[in-house]
Here is the input.
Amino acid sequence: MKLVVAIIKPFKLDEVRQALTAIGVHGMTVTEVKGYGRQKGHTEIYRGAEYVVNFLPKLRIEIAVPAEIADKAVEVITEHARTGKIGDGKIFVTPIDRALRIRTGETDADAL
Amino acid sequence: MRALSHRAARSAAAIATATIFSATPAFAATSGINAADTAWMTVATALVLMMTIPGLALFYSGMVRKKNVLATMAQSLAAVTVISILWVAFGYSLAFVGNGPWLGTLNRWFLEGLTMDSVNPAAKTIPEALFMLYQMTFAIITVALVAGSVADRMRFSAYLLFSVTWFMFVYVPLAHWVWGGGFLGSMGVLDFAGGLVVHLSAGAGGLVAAMVVGRRHGYGFENLSPFDLSLAVVGTGLLWVGWFGFNGGSALAANSRAVMAIVATHLAACAGALTWGAIEWSKRRKPSVLGMISGAVAGLGTITPASGFVEPWHGIVIGIVAGAICYWACTWLKLRFKYDDSLDVFGVHGIGGMTGTLLAGLFATAAIGGTSGLFEGHPQQLLIQLYGVAVTLVWSGGVTYALLKLVGALVPLRVSAEQELEGLDISQHGEALQ
Here is the structure.
């Protein structure tokens, strides 16, 4: 089992979600986050006060998938989250030790 | 025979009706209370109270950081609750009852002697209780305005003590001097709705408070950006509409003068917003929403003292001047002298009130308010206005300084550094926005 974590631009969420559903990934957790990499922030001015804002809004998507389809999931996310401009995001894949469905008690592969 | 009796019956009915519905002779002699004026002034009173809650509460809170939003609203709430009681206890009496040059009397303490029929000589066509209540809403908002300068860092207990004493020693005397029969009004200072009494006094007091209490932690290097400017926009709308009661109601009657004042007021708000927006567009490539609402409030504050004395179209000119000069005060002046007047009470209300009072000395026309200004051949009016400005600046600034030192000796004015980091909502009120 693998945990695929993707940081993407917020407006790409629907496209990525639909694409993942199409390959059999039927659940995800999404968080609103702030971050930066190579994309520069912007300046905000409130009356006399100027603030440089480095952090940009992003979405963090987490999906737990069987190891066999982890690579496919990464490929699908990459294809649908890409705009070609700086700030498209990153994907990280980490192993999952255990998984459990709370309602039924199913474990590991049956919980995904 | 029938025609005659019909006519007689009609006359009898008319006389009976007139007798039933007219005031009894005794009533008419003691008070000329007029339903139209009373109705309008009641509405105006409600409009001005709305300017503080929720108008100012939203305007200010939207501009502070999330961790201080509730505490900022608490300051407006506190102003309403505390000042209302004090006004009834002695504020109204000392400000508006009795014609001494410096202060009124305590004849109406706790409204003693105020009856259904009594009127204040300043507003003979409305019940005295209404005049008292209307003036109360002005006292409330003036006190609430000052808090903006020390946003994000003033201890609630110190704020309460400071507000009570500031009301007693700055607002009440000043209201008496300009409006209650005191020396500034008698020498001809024109302040229709509070350029001096409300805006300049709050602005000067705020500036001194900002300097005495000190800058916010992180000022100049941390991101102190507004929590939610949409709250501030809503607040501006409530202030703007409420100002129809603030300036229009200062005519103390439902008449043309009130309407002229409202037209001038509205135009000044529009011109102020457009001017500030235009300046930002040209200097910063984008007109900001904060800039437009600030310009509107600048226009409103600046037209306030002049609104009942100038032609309605003068509101446009005054609004343009307001937008420009207050923009300058909130950007260049504040940065040059490095004071943290957090919500620009001095930059908008102080400078605006001062400017408007002087512009009244230029633009006043006898056709509207019975007095002429410089442009109508009465240049002395400008000097009289200048005198009023100087007295207000010195009195408000000086007394504010003394009061802060006094209050500060009893209770620290500022919250501690940890409390400031944690936020006033949690540290002062035990609450938080989720």
In short: The helical segments of chain A are 13-22, 67-81. The domain at 2-111 of chain A is CATH 3.30.70.120 (Alpha-Beta Plaits). The two ends of chain A are 9 Å apart (CA to CA).
